[in-house]
Amino acid sequence: MPIVEDAVLPKKPLSDDAATMALQPAAPHIAPFAGLEPPSARKNRWLSDVAILCYFAMATLIVHLILGGRYGFHRDELATLEDARNLYVARTYAYVASGKQGVAIVDVEHPEQPRLDQMFNAGGEISDANDVKLGMVSSSLFAYIADGHNGLRVVQLFSPRDNPAFGGFSPRPTPKLIATFRTHGPALAISKGIDRDRAVDESGNQLAVFGRRGARPFNRQEMERMYLLDGEIFTVTDEAPGTAPQKQALRQLQR
């Protein structure tokens, strides 16, 4: 209920007659609320701009937690990659060689909103990752990592034994280090042939077409022209450029 008072003393000094008139209870009036907010002010507080922003923030946090981190708070996650050196994209994941941090596995199902899924360094063993490439054998996926002074690392990303979802389109990786090859010098890069959309056997006979129709794959004779020289497998040596063995090999190729 409003507060009703009989009269309010004026701020300026009054004469005796004026003071007597002001204190007369003949003209009561409604005075403002003293130290209390009116109900309308309390109601508007819950609909203020600040309150609406708080509602949106709380809703985003709840959705983020319910969906396991797949929504919200992802735009700056990749700032944690201190030394990204190279990357390889396979289906809905990007694999980033991240130096001393190992390999960053990034969820790129929504490319405009990449999300860091996990970091993997095999307990600190992968500490100089320069490059990474992927290869698949049957139902298992492997990552080949040029790990600088540590050499070549082979990481199994998933297999039927370790990942029940291996048969899906893009199962979440469950990486583990399975092999290491010590190189003579720092491993700086990994080379890989161009991915094709058809399968062939050891002789080059086409087995299946996965995507487009069109040009056939190379047969065995055509493939051998890429790696055989006078019937021998073409190799390179540790000789410096311009030495006699390399010049001789170059002349044979030019024929």
Question: How does this structure look, described?
Answer:
The protein is of the alpha+beta class and 255 residues long. It has three domains: 4-66, no CATH class; 77-195, no CATH class; 205-255, no CATH class. It is 20% helix and 25% strand. It has five helices and 14 strands. It has helices spanning 16-22, 39-45, 49-66, 220-227, 244-254; strands spanning 4-5, 29-30, 86-90, 93-97, 103-107, 115-120, 131-137, 140-146, 152-158, 176-181, 198-200, 206-209, 228-229, 232-233. The strands form five sheets. Strands 3-4-5-6 form a four-stranded antiparallel sheet, with no helix packed on it. Strand 5 and strand 6 form a beta hairpin. It is elongated, with a radius of gyration of 37 Å.
The domain count comes to 3
The number of distinct helices, counting runs of at least 4 residues, comes to 5
Mean of the pLDDT scores?
A: 78
User: In which order are the strands of the major sheet placed?
Assistant: 3-4-5-6
Order of helices and strands: EHEHHEEEEEEEEEEHEEH
For the largest beta-sheet, the strand count, sense and barrel status come to: 4 strands, antiparallel
What best-fitting shape do the alpha-carbon axes yield?
elongated
- Radius of gyration computed on alpha carbons: 37 Å
Beta strand count: 14
> Spans with pLDDT under 50 lasting ≥5 residues?
1-9
Classify the beta-strand content into a percent band: 15-25%
- N- to C-terminal distance: 107 Å
Helix content: 10-25%
Category by helix and strand content:
alpha+beta
